[in-house]
């Protein structure tokens, strides 16, 4: 399992993995206080045993005769500002789980909302 370096790539591939098979996708968060590291993992939760290949070759569901490897995406950080990114990913997954894998994620990501909002003036001193 290799850790992904880019947060945006991790989020995009995680959403693709969930939309491909929402029933078996698993999302795990782990914080290690002693290291100060947050690890996020998204997997398709497929476990394959290679011991049955010799005795039951007809049970393989892949065309090559070998079981398909499971997909595991991991992201590790020790930055405090990445906690906000994790909260957005949590709300994104909650939206996908509650509204279905074909849900529109523009509400959660806020991309359209920030473009549509007019610029606000700050609360500075009146002149």
TrEMBL record:
<keyword id="KW-0694">RNA-binding</keyword>
<keyword id="KW-0687">Ribonucleoprotein</keyword>
<dbReference type="GO" id="GO:0008312">
    <property type="term" value="F:7S RNA binding"/>
</dbReference>
<feature type="region of interest" description="Disordered">
    <location>
        <begin position="101"/>
        <end position="127"/>
    </location>
</feature>
<dbReference type="GO" id="GO:0006614">
    <property type="term" value="P:SRP-dependent cotranslational protein targeting to membrane"/>
</dbReference>
<keyword id="KW-0733">Signal recognition particle</keyword>
<dbReference type="GO" id="GO:0005786">
    <property type="term" value="C:signal recognition particle, endoplasmic reticulum targeting"/>
</dbReference>
<comment type="function">
    <text>Component of the signal recognition particle (SRP) complex, a ribonucleoprotein complex that mediates the cotranslational targeting of secretory and membrane proteins to the endoplasmic reticulum (ER). SRP9 together with SRP14 and the Alu portion of the SRP RNA, constitutes the elongation arrest domain of SRP. The complex of SRP9 and SRP14 is required for SRP RNA binding.</text>
</comment>
<dbReference type="InterPro" id="IPR008832">
    <property type="entry name" value="SRP9"/>
</dbReference>
<dbReference type="InterPro" id="IPR009018">
    <property type="entry name" value="Signal_recog_particle_SRP9/14"/>
</dbReference>
<dbReference type="InterPro" id="IPR039432">
    <property type="entry name" value="SRP9_dom"/>
</dbReference>
<protein>
    <recommendedName>
        <fullName>Signal recognition particle 9 kDa protein</fullName>
    </recommendedName>
</protein>
<dbReference type="InterPro" id="IPR039914">
    <property type="entry name" value="SRP9-like"/>
</dbReference>
<dbReference type="Pfam" id="PF05486">
    <property type="entry name" value="SRP9-21"/>
</dbReference>
<feature type="domain" description="SRP9">
    <location>
        <begin position="5"/>
        <end position="46"/>
    </location>
</feature>
<comment type="similarity">
    <text>Belongs to the SRP9 family.</text>
</comment>
<keyword id="KW-0963">Cytoplasm</keyword>
<dbReference type="GO" id="GO:0045900">
    <property type="term" value="P:negative regulation of translational elongation"/>
</dbReference>
